[in-house]
# Entry
Amino acid sequence: MKKLTILFTVLIVASCSTKEQADLIVTNANIYTVNDNFETAQAFAVKDGKFLDVGSSEDILAKYETTNTIDANGQTILPGFIDAHCHFLGLGYDQQAVDLVGTKSFDEVVMRVTDFQNKNNLKYIKGRGWDQNDWDVKEFPNNKLLNALYPDTPIVLTRIDGHAILCNKAALDLGNVTIDSKIDGGEVVMENGELTGVLVDNAESLVMNYWPKTTKEDTVKALMDAQDICFSYGLTTVNDAGLSVEAIEIIDSLQQTGDLKIRVYAMVSGNKNNLDYYLNKGIVKTDKLNVRSFKYYVDGALGSRGALLRAPYSDKENHFGLAVNSFEDLQETASRIANSEFQMNTHAIGDSANHVVLQTYKAVLKGKPNRRWKVEHAQVISPEDFDLFDDIIPSVQPTHATSDMYWAEDRVGAERIKGAYAFKDLLNKYGKVALGTDFPVEHVSPFYTFYAAVARQDLKGYPKNGYQMENALTREETLKGMTIWAAYSNFEENEKGSIETGKLADFIILDKNIMEVDASEIPNIKVVKTFVDGEAQ
# Structure
């Protein structure tokens, strides 16, 4: 009888001490959950790639056990960053080209091209990142020096925003470009009746349609390179703004094999062939890939004076910018997408472009609530058009404000600039903003994004009191815009964007508390480790 009593007691104690098995437990952390109440926590448990429970270290350790525990030693943990607008594949391709970002003159551009070619000896040369607004001579370059140095090697150098290219004569000859070449929605820039080699917006196709196609091997390498860069900055989901069917299929295949672990929200390039293909195929959704939107262009960029304005540019007489697609095509495309379950995400920079996009959206979405269509960039808005964002998501990139502030007012004047880069005004109208970087147009770092949104300053701390600070975002708003609101804009708020039970265990550990450090320290914050599905990357 005594033995039975002892055995019964042991069984009771054992049953009471049984803990649920977890794959990972993180304790002693400063966790910003970004849940509905923006609560903080100390610990969480992960199982099967999802958050199993979130709470205090004491509670989590009392309920769960594992062989894999991380003591965060008080470090800050956030949900994995979601870049709501970027060019993920483009970033990867750029690793295979001349890096022209930060060049201070055209002579420096040529020097970098020469250094690159001396090392690689390629038959065709591509580069990206020049911006004439950063040079002493703030005019488009011409190709005379490139023609002299490389008479037989085609060279294409893309402007930082992707909306203009500089081609040497060998590249122009690929498409038989002459002074008589013209194209709707594009400009062949000439000087004194001669080709300069600069092609703006749709005119780029005059050469690029004849440029050697990238191979599958090039694309695979680009995707893997881009993933490494993004993980190093704490990005766990990227919204790639404009992908081909072929690129999406390669992404899917790499994710299926486990090589590509980053999550991709794919905006399909919105040409007719792609529309026909995916409107027939339907939405594609896996745990890593979401294909349910089309990326469409209405105008070009402000820096290359391709943004479509309602009144002429303040610094170029009688110039209104470029409509890269006709308004009729916009309306037809929007109508087709509205009759499907797909989302439409339209690039609109100028106030005219934003006006026509918003009006078109309103017309085709009448009686169709919660479609979550986006205006990508929403950069210059007329005062009366802000109200039209009541059910349209503004997808904006804060670093554009701090990059463009040196010259943007020259383009649009003192009155129109008041409605430019107006992130807070847009937030107040919709209630959410989706934040991205637009990399590689801007730097990949989400910490630059965060800093630009909050401080409205460049990395040198200029201007001292911030740029148009009435449109700065709070740190809480900014973090939401880079996590849960970005997830919402992708119809994924129930699976990611916050650290909550049942959601995907995508999170990052930082070396500083982004919510409390001095704003000047934000750009230098480092990611200690990035986790996807609870696994360190």
Remarks:
- The longest helix spans residues 216-232.
- The longest strand covers residues 235-243.
- Confidence is low (pLDDT under 50) at residues 1-15.
- Residues 96-208 form a domain with the Diaminopimelate Epimerase; Chain A, domain 1 fold (CATH 3.10.310.70).
